[in-house]
Amino acid sequence: MEITGVSSKAYTSAAASVEEEDELKEAQEENSAEEAKEYGVSAKASEEKDVTDFSSSGYDESDVEEKATNYLKNIMFVNNLTDESSAALQNYLNTFDAADFIKKYGPFSSTAEISAAMYAAVGSLIKQQDDE
């Protein structure tokens, strides 16, 4: 079977178009590699799948102490607490031991986990005044 009516010019044009696409793709890959080097990332790393590695404890003692302090201060500021409740929460804050808290309730990987543990630890100390 013979194909007639196709000029060599059309074939050459199609082949050139494919070659241009290949060259464009190579140029884009080179630009990506250059940008990756500029930001300190290897080109190979950008091709790999993203993998997230979670540690067993995302928060250390200073982070837990900060979050616990903020939690207690918010409770004391926002709620209309009784004097006894405020004093008990302030005493708990003054004697707070982050290492012991982590040992009892941790390890923690989010602020929400710390807040839940704080509620478990001090929930019984929170007493609101009755509005009369």
Distance between the termini: 102 Å
Would you report the number of β strands? 0
**Mind telling me the C-alpha Rg?**
32 Å
Mean pLDDT: 75
Helices and strands: which structural class?
mainly alpha
List SSEs in N-to-C order.
HHHHHH
Low-pLDDT sequence parts: 53-57
Helix content: 55-70%
Helical region count? 6
Strand content: under 5%
Largest beta sheet, briefly? Answer: none
| Shape verdict | rod-shaped
Description:
With 132 residues, the chain is mainly α. It has six helices and no strands. The protein is rod-shaped, with a radius of gyration of 32 Å. The N and C termini lie far apart (102 Å).
In short:
The chain is rod-shaped.
Key attributes of the depicted protein:
single chain; 132 residues; mainly alpha
Please write out the topology:
Elements: H1 8-38, H2 43-47, H3 61-78, H4 83-94, H5 98-105, H6 111-122
